[in-house]
Amino acid sequence: MFNATPEFDPQKLDEAAKRAIDHYLDPKPQTKQKKNSSQLFAVVESATTETLLANLSETLASANAMLSDLAFDLEGSRRHFALGVQQMIELSEMLANRALDIVELR
């Protein structure tokens, strides 16, 4: 006669339940795999927001100074272009400094 309810092996059922519980409640720590990349520079994951903003501010200040020196050696439309880029860098520097002020207040 055909049995509508399949018979389960209690040992296999216990093993399956243990695997399921271990999978969800006791996950093994996964090690991060280094990605192969041609990237030369990277930002360390442990860097704080304050450190990142301070370095951003200093980098923008350096770019501003370099472009300012270059702009005064140019003439015409190239000078206007360089001064426009310098203004965008200066605005970005102001935003970074403001964000740094907010982070330091905390």
Automatic annotation (TrEMBL):
Source species of the chain: Pseudomonas agronomica
Name of the protein: DUF6124 family protein
Name of a matching Pfam family: DUF6124
Top-rank lineage group of the source organism: Bacteria
Lineage summary: Bacteria, Pseudomonadati, Pseudomonadota, Gammaproteobacteria, Pseudomonadales
